[in-house]
């Protein structure tokens, strides 16, 4: 049975609670990781960890965070997620490493 999630409908100045049956997974898919990272304040470890916990099991997580780490709005959060993912024992594929190094070279970040 799907989890119950309470959402709010904004009608002018009033917030009306609406209870909907929706799986948490579907809710997370609706709110993209990019939006979550972009809205992160850049300081709250609990908030960025919550994003990691909610998204790290996605099969495309590593590709997603690599791509997002190359964008200005998401760079800080995506690299935090990358670090957490690697510390959890995951590894990048050669093509992913090449993409990261290629971006560093293009942006003038290599020594």
Q: Judging from the principal axes of the Cα atoms, what is the shape?
A: globular
Query: What oligomeric state is this?
Result: single chain
Low-confidence stretches: 1-23, 26-30
Order of helices and strands: EEHHHHHH
Mean pLDDT over all positions: 76
How would you sum up the major sheet?
2 strands, antiparallel
**Gyration radius over CA:** 17 Å
Side by side, the strands of the main sheet go: 1-2
Number of helices: 6
Helix content: 40-55%
- Strand composition percent: 5-15%
**Structural class given helices, strands, pairing?**
alpha+beta
Number of strands: 2
Distance between the termini: 54 Å
Mind sketching the topology for me?
Blueprint: E1 4-11, E2 14-21, H1 24-30, H2 33-39, H3 45-55, H4 61-69, H5 75-87, H6 94-106
Antiparallel strand pairs: 1-2
Summarize, please.
It contains six helices and two strands; from the N terminus they run ββαααααα.
Mind explaining what this structure looks like?
The chain has about 110 residues and is an alpha+beta fold. It has helices at about 25-30, 35-40, 45-55, 60-70, 75-85, 95-105, and strands at about 5-10, 15-20. Helices cover about 55% and strands about 15% of the residues. The protein has a two-stranded antiparallel ribbon. Strand 1 and strand 2 form a beta hairpin. Helix 3 (about 45-55) crosses helix 5 (about 75-85) and helix 4 (about 60-70) packs antiparallel against helix 5 (about 75-85).
């Amino acid at each position: 049975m799907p989890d119950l999630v309470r959402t709010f409908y904004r009608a002018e100045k009033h917030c009306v609670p609406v209870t909907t049956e929706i799986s948490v997974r579907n809710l997370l898919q609706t709110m993209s990781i990019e939006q979550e990272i972009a809205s992160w304040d850049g300081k709250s470890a609990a908030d960025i960890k919550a994003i990691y916990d909610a998204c790290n099991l996605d099969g495309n997580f590593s590709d997603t965070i690599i791509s997002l780490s190359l964008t200005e709005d998401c760079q800080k959060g995506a690299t935090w997620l990358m670090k957490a993912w690697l510390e959890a024992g995951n590894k990048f594929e050669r093509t992913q490493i090449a993409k990261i190094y290629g971006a560093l070279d293009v942006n003038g970040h290599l020594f």
